[in-house]
Write a structure and sequence with these properties.
Distance between the termini: 47 Å
CATH architecture: 3-Layer(aba) Sandwich
Helix content: 25-40%
Structural class: alpha/beta
Shape: globular
CATH superfamily: Alpha/Beta hydrolase fold, catalytic domain
CATH topology: Rossmann fold
Order of helices and strands: EHHEHHEEEHHEEHHHEHEEHEHEH
Strand order of the largest sheet: 2-3-4-6-5-8-9-10-11-12
Number of strands: 12
Number of domains: 1
Largest sheet: 10 strands, mixed
């Protein structure tokens, strides 16, 4: 039995992850499950810090450039979509680039003569849309805390997609029962279930491609407008954003100085050796019911085999909401079973997630 995985299918997989294989309709039902499960387990997985950050002090106000269209945020929908409170929303300027809504937080006490690092934040399925609010997730609130902003001043860029974080030229192989046997074990089961429950491609979506390529163009636009330290551009995200983070460093390993994917995966036809030189710190909950933990385990195994630069923290007992403890991580906890492994001696042993990230720099 043959199944052509087109761009449409790739987008669906990246949008919902493994969860799409577990229900025949794979769309609205699983979207709701991801959103509810992520919100519920976010509080369960927290290391004790509040999910809503303290009020932050904005940096100096800037003027919206002619090349990047500024727009007022839809504040009336903040309670419905944004995972952050109003004080955080105010720190992220609402903008638009070629039809893509995005939010941008400038460094605190912004100095236009200084070159700053840039973090690209990719939202998960819960942020899909065009309201320019759903792209503000819990970790963007952590990044807005004044203490962290003063310790590590940087730009934070949060684009929003109504589809997925795939590129325009996303590879789309033909799958057969025989070809699936060449993929890692976790993916073999996933693809076999998909071929059984969905023997023909799903109905066409509004857009067959995702917005990762446009996000890359947006980064270039930000580099044009501001002084960005091009040796310190980082990408991170959770769930669909975790898929997107893996996809970003696979598509453009030369662009990123480091990545933090949580509860994500890389499509099995993509070779992880392509980003072996990109420092990565990945997180996944061992009890994740939506995106199997084996997806990250298999990437880590590949990185060990090729001597890549990947740290992996598997959080025992944590479900899909590993992003909350991950983006507040300050060190392993043996009592919880949260232990970080390293794929090689190339990995920096720094235990604080943000100190580790900002220590990474492309040669």
């Amino acid at each position: 039995m043959r199944l052509m995985i087109t761009k449409i299918v790739c987008a669906a997989l990246l949008a919902g992850g493994a969860a799409y294989a577990q229900t025949p309709n794979g769309g609205a039902e699983m979207d709701n499950a991801i959103e509810k499960n992520s919100r519920r387990n976010a509080s369960e997985a927290s290391q004790g810090g509040p999910n809503s950050p303290a009020t932050n002090t904005p940096g100096k106000a800037g003027t919206a450039p002619a090349r990047a269209k500024a727009q007022p945020g839809n504040q009336t929908g903040a309670e419905k979509k944004a995972e952050v409170d109003e004080s955080v929303i105010q720190l992220y300027e609402a903008r638009e680039f070629q039809g893509m809504p995005y939010r941008l937080m400038k460094p605190i006490d912004f100095d236009p003569s200084t070159a700053y690092p840039l973090i690209v934040s990719l939202h998960g399925k819960g942020g899909v849309g065009t309201d320019n609010l759903g792209n503000l997730r819990v970790w963007t609130a952590f990044l807005a805390r004044e203490e962290l902003r003063r310790k590590h001043p940087c730009f934070v860029l949060a684009p929003q997609t109504p589809t997925s974080w795939t590129t325009d030229d996303e590879p789309a192989p033909v799958l057969t029962e025989d070809s699936i046997k060449n993929y890692p074990e976790a993916w073999r089961g996933f693809l076999q279930r998909r071929m059984t429950t969905q023997p023909s491609p799903p109905p066409a979506r509004a857009s067959a491609g995702g917005d990762l390529s446009k996000a890359f163009d947006l980064v270039a636009e930000i580099e044009y407008e501001f002084r960005i330290d091009r040796s310190r551009i980082y990408v991170l995200g959770h769930s669909m954003g975790g898929f997107g983070s893996w996809n970003a460093i696979w598509a453009k390993p030369e662009m990123f100085a480091a990545a933090i994917p949580t509860a994500g995966a890389l499509m099995p036809w993509k070779d992880p050796k392509r980003f072996a030189n990109v420092p990565i710190w990945a997180f996944h909950g061992s009890a994740d019911p939506l995106v199997p933990v084996d997806f990250t385990r298999e990437i880590f195994a590949a990185m060990k085999q090729c001597g890549g630069n990947m740290k992996y923290t598997e959080m025992q007992g944590v479900n899909h909401g590993c992003n909350v403890p991950a983006f507040q991580y300050t060190g392993d906890d043996a009592a919880k079973g949260w232990i970080t492994q390293c794929s090689s001696d190339r990995c920096e042993r720094e235990s604080d997630i943000w100190d580790w990230l900002f220590n990474q720099k492309r040669p």
